[in-house]
Specification:
The protein has helices at residues 29-39, 65-78, 92-101, and strands spanning 8-9, 13-18, 24-27, 44-49, 55-61, 104-110, 113-114, 120-126, 132-141. It has 142 residues and is of the alpha+beta class. The chain is elongated and about 55 Å long. Bound molecules: zinc ion.
């Protein structure tokens, strides 16, 4: 029952994400699914990691675009861009939002597909764009 089979670790995949706004949620589900499909892994775990301090990754609804709109509107209210911060670079709000949302997500792979809920999508969250970003994907077969 798979006990003798070795756990396979695929090489880390580096995806490019181009953001076009200062605060933006980019649906990267298709890009990540493509990476999973190309890996040939049928059963395993997919880890998505953001190697930046002013961006994040999250999973949320991708059916109604107003969810993303409301999410972005509210996070900008919760963490205002100007609030007497001292960080010289002037982007403390972006650093805060990144840590609040988080830098990684894990999704189960079943039958070669990301096992997301019907309404779920994976979002790259930009908090200090527009920029060219990287998104790391690690696929583990087990
Ligand atoms: Zn900074």
């Amino acid at each position: 029952m798979g006990r003798t089979s070795e756990v396979k670790y695929m090489k880390t995949i580096r995806l490019n994400v181009k953001t076009t706004a200062h605060t933006q949620m980019v649906d990267v589900t298709d890009q990540i699914q493509k990476a999973v499909t190309e890996s040939g892994v049928r059963e395993g775990i997919c880890t998505v990691f953001v190697p930046h301090t002013t961006a994040a990754v999250t999973i949320n609804e991708n059916a109604d675009p107003d969810v993303v709109r409301d999410f972005t509107m509210e996070i900008n209210k919760i963490v205002p861009w100007e609030d007497g911060y001292r960080h010289m670079e002037g982007n403390s709000a972006a650093h805060l939002k990144s840590s609040m949302i988080g830098f990684s997500e894990q999704v189960i792979i079943e039958d070669g597909r990301l096992l997301l809920g019907v309404w779920q999508g994976i979002y790259f969250c930009e908090y200090d764009g527009p920029r060219s970003r990287k998104l790391l994907v690690k696929i583990r077969e087990d």
